[in-house]
Amino acid sequence: MATETTEAAGVCVDAGGYALGMPQLCADWMPNQIFWLLVALAAIYFVMSRIALPRIGAVLAERSGTITNDIAAAEDLKNKAAEAEAAYDKALVDARAEAAKIVAEAKAEIQAELDAELQKADAEIAAKAAESEAAIVEIRDGAVKSVTAVAKDTAKELVAAMGGSADAKTITAAVNARMKG
Amino acid sequence: MATETDAHSEGGLAFHPLDQFIVEPVFGDGAVSFYTVTNVTVWMGIALLAIIGVFVMGSRGRAIVPTRVQSIGELIYGFVYKMVEDVTGKDGVKYFPYIITLFLFVLFSNYLALIPMSYSPTSMIAVTAILGFGVFTAITILGFVKHGASFLGLFWMADAPLFLRPIIAVIEVISYFVRPVSLSIRLAGNIAAGHVVLKVFAGFAALAVVSPFAILGIVAIYGLEILVCGIQAYVFTILTCVYLKDALHPAH
Q1: What was the pLDDT predicted at B28?
Q2: What's the N-to-C CA distance of chain B in angstroms?
Q3: Given CB 3.0 to 4.6 Å as the disulfide criterion, which of A62, A164, B7, B204 pairs with B214?
Q4: Residue A105: is it exposed, middle or buried by C-beta count within 10 angstroms (0-12/13-18/19+)?
Q5: How far apart, in whole angstroms, are the C-alpha atoms of residue A151 and residue B152?
Q6: What is the DSSP letter of B163?
Q7: 8 Å CB contact of A47 and B127
Q8: Is A2 on the interface with B (CB under 8 A)?
């Protein structure tokens, strides 16, 4: 600033190149400042309003649009996931019910088969028992008959040995009476 | 800018804290006429280039996921847009390009002036006065165009007691016309004062005994100035929004 030319700088600078008073108040310089201020403001306004502001506004709008879309998509996917979960749960419940049904059916079938077999076995046993009983009755009857026959014969022989004689009818009646007693 | 003091100082300390505000031609010497390219021109041009760098070059990619520079631009855009919308309402949004032009000019000029050896256009009262009175004139014209004579209702407090209304009206008129003055002097005063204080501390740094304190002082004031630069740009802009709201909705 302390340059070689001193007197040409104007009324606001002294011979040494230093400010006289406040340079801010130097009226000589004001037109220059005002002119360039207006130029600068016009340039800034032009650049901002024509280029920068529309561009940044568009970028911000686009970004908020993208964010909104992404949130909507996320919401969509979330709903889908919930649906899938519900379907899965339903499938699980169905499968459980199916399994329970199958188990119950199998149980019933087995029970039925078992019952049938048991019935059959019972019937067979009953038949065998009846058969055996009949055989036993037959044997017993046979035995009683034999005893009666033997008793008659023995009684006839005894009566004959004792010197008596008895007809068959009397002996049979006597033996039968004894057998009953 | 004015640290080379040896040639004319009488030895020892020499303070020329105001020399940093001298306007000088960049090319050659001579009188400063209104179209001369001066250091004011250069630093306003640098501010313009910085604004273009952040807002045009930075957003060139139009990326959905922004780069660093683009996100700075978007941050400032969103900040000013929200301020305009919050203060003036929906119908003030169409003045957003004008408001952000003012804000960016003040903000970038303030911060670029913190670079050593730079020049601070916003410390010049002529510059801030044009800004302040420009805002004032534009908003006053806008108010009358939108509302006609009923714009004067801004000064007439309908809900005050009747005998107080003329007095309040006088006060309101005075405060209305003080607005551009306070707008411009606040900005220029803050920025100029900060730079002068920095320069004074820098002058003390030449004295070996106090230089550590002087340098500490410079650091502290510089930190303060970083705050002041942003706050002054913000204050200028939000007051403009408040005045704009008065013009758009003059009823209290």
Answers
A1: 76
A2: 49
A3: B204
A4: exposed
A5: 160
A6: G
A7: no
A8: yes
Residue A39, min C-alpha distance to chain B (Å): 9
Query: b/e for B98-107, b at 16 or more Cβ within 10 A?
Result: bbbbbbbbbb
CA angle centred on B108, ends B239 and B132, rounded to 5°: 35
Give the amino acid at A7: E
Distance of CA A156 to CAs A146, A153, A167, A172, B2, Å? 15, 5, 8, 10, 179
CA–CA distance from A42 to each of A49, A131, A166, B41, B67 (Å)? 10, 131, 171, 14, 28
Tokens for A73, please give them: 């998509």
* Ramachandran angles phi, psi of A16, nearest 5°: -85, 0
In the numeric block, the tokens 């199998």 are attached to A106
pTM confidence score: 0.72
Tell me the one-letter amino acid at B217: G
Alpha-carbon distance A167 to A171, whole Å?
Answer: 7
Q: Phi-psi region for residue B116, left (φ > 0), alpha (ψ -120 to 50) or beta?
A: beta
Which H or E run contains A59?
helix A53-161
Tokens representing residue B117 in the block? 């050896």
Q: Can you tell me the ipTM of this complex?
A: 0.85
Which residues of chain B have a CB within 8 Å of the CB of A2?
4, 7-8
Phi, psi of B76 (to 5 degrees): -65, -45
